[in-house]
Amino acid sequence: MPEFLHQDQIDEVYLLIPGFLSPEETNNLLQRSKQLISEFPIESHPRTKFTTGDENHVGDNYFLTSGDKIRFFLEEDAVDGDGKLNREKEKAVNKIGHALHELDPVFRKVTLENQKVQAVARDLAMHVDPVALQSMVICKQPQIGGEVGEHNDSYYTDPPSALGFWFALEECTPLNGALSFLPGSHLTTPITKRFVRLPEGGTGFEKIVPPEVEAHAATSAKGKYILEACSPGDLVLIHGAVLHKSERNTSSHTRFAYTFHMIESSPRALYDAKNWLQPTPSMPFSRVLNEPNLKLINPALA
């Protein structure tokens, strides 16, 4: 890991830091992920599937109340029309989320008790008092690991402040769904929609720009994506406004990754009440730094 990082290093696309996690840390996260999947009771599971399309995104109560819990979401192609699994449980889970960083000691150690993560937060100087949320293990199961279409993560706050931390736990290749990024898209492609809780219940996408801006965004999003293969332990920092995606896993290997988002906390950024994930009285968003990065407010306090 470089001795110092700076915001400019992720302003163009993203920043890949090879070997950010040690082999031991990486293996601990991977084995714990597999243990969690092995131990969760499928018999009482509501068969909630994780989907990312505009028309059928997951939005049931099991999903909406998962922000302060550890829950399991299934691949679309792992459940038949009668709600029964068509493969073993261990090969059916799409992801685990969304409070691993708070509730599981192995993930908490890497996320909130990790001096290297804290150093990244301080060095990038993007947040005064950052908080972590929406931690997930994404499994990308062999043959059925679903495509995640192009999207960005800056719908959380006003002003936008999201930064993605994405840790490869296994080899990530063109065949098993490695991440792809559109260079400079945070400068050329405006954010056109947000994933929100709907007044009538469930979730959906809310358009936030006029049709002509949406049309321009669709055109500017057709540039050449860069695919970034990763090795276990690598960290990818993802600018909140950069378009990124991953293809379907067509290989015979899983592609486990651990990810969470970091945002600025109130009062410097407003967290919208429409966001699908909301803090709860028992679990407010988790502070990343032991002390705020006050030098961003007043350099004399550094």
Count of helix runs: 7
Ranges where pLDDT stays below 50 over 5 or more residues in a row are none
| Overall pLDDT | 87
Distance between the termini: 23 Å
Our estimate of the beta-strand percent is 15-25%
Give the overall silhouette.
globular
Order of helices and strands: EHHEEHHHEEEEEHEEHEEEEEE
Could you estimate the helical fraction of the residues in percent? Answer: 10-25%
Largest sheet: 8 strands, antiparallel
What is the C-alpha radius of gyration, as a whole number of Å?
19 Å
The assigned structural class equals alpha+beta
Number of strand segments: 16
Descriptive account of the structure:
This protein is α+β, with helices and mostly antiparallel strands. The protein has 7 helices and 16 strands. It has helices spanning 23-39, 61-64, 100-103, 105-111, 115-124, 185-188, 211-220; strands at 14-17, 70-74, 93-98, 130-138, 148-151, 157-158, 163-168, 179-181, 193-197, 203-207, 226-228, 235-239, 244-246, 257-264, 270-271, 286-287. The strands form 4 sheets. Strands 1, 2, 3, 4, 7, 12, 14 and 16 form an 8-stranded antiparallel sheet that branches. The model has no long low-confidence stretch (mean pLDDT 87).
For this entry, give a set of tags:
302 residues, alpha+beta, 8-stranded antiparallel sheet, 4-stranded antiparallel sheet, 7 helices, globular
What is shown here, in short?
This protein is an alpha+beta fold.
Q: Helix and strand layout, with pairings?
A:
Elements: E1 14-17, H1 23-39, H2 61-64, E2 70-74, E3 93-98, H3 100-103, H4 105-111, H5 115-124, E4 130-138, E5 148-151, E6 157-158, E7 163-168, E8 179-181, H6 185-188, E9 193-197, E10 203-207, H7 211-220, E11 226-228, E12 235-239, E13 244-246, E14 257-264, E15 270-271, E16 286-287
